[in-house]
Amino acid sequence: MKLALHPSEDPDLARAQDGLRTFLAALSLTGAERSAVHVAVLEAMVNAVRHGHSAGQRAATLDLEVVAGQIVATVTDYGPGFDPVSCPDPFAPERMRLPHGRGVLLMRALMDDVDFTFPPGGGTRVTLRRALPSTAPTGA
């Protein structure tokens, strides 16, 4: 499943969330597993829409698939990119009350693997993986 997201367009983000929910509903997941994946992927999508666009380019794409017993969600944006290692510490006292700045932390906590890559033409590609329970179907 592939969806395009556009900068600052809430209907597109809502459409992507609906697609994500439909994708996850087809898998044999518990409510907690489904919620964990949903929150992690939503964090990546929101970051892409808010930060990952440049003038005249689409903001992001979301690809969802099941590969080798894993949910694989890839969010690609076309913005300036960033250094995930230099993200401010969300636990620093001066950041504790801020309403943002925990997305990367949440993605890493909720998924088995989170990779950030930076294509040569610019942008950021976030690939999130989480193993399916052994009883889940392997194709979606």
Describe it for me?
The chain is of the alpha+beta class and 140 residues long. Helices cover 32% and strands 24% of the residues. It contains 3 helices and 5 strands, in the order E-H-H-E-E-H-E-E. The chain has a 5-stranded antiparallel β-sheet with strand order 1-2-3-5-4, covered by helices on one side. A hairpin with a 6-residue loop joins strand 4 and strand 5. Helix 1 (10-25) runs antiparallel to helix 2 (31-51). The longest helix has 21 residues, at 31-51. The protein is globular. The mean pLDDT is 81.
Number of strands: 5
Average pLDDT confidence is 81
Q: N-to-C SSE series?
A: EHHEEHEE
Strand content: 15-25%
Low-confidence stretches: none
Count of alpha and pi helical runs: 3
Q: Order of strands in the sheet with the most strands? A: 1-2-3-5-4
Distance between the amino and carboxyl termini:
9 Å
Major sheet size, sense and barrel closure: 5 strands, antiparallel
The backbone outline, from C-alpha atoms, is: globular
Radius of gyration of CA atoms, rounded to a whole number: 15 Å
User: What is the percent of helical residues?
Assistant: 25-40%
Overall SS class: alpha+beta
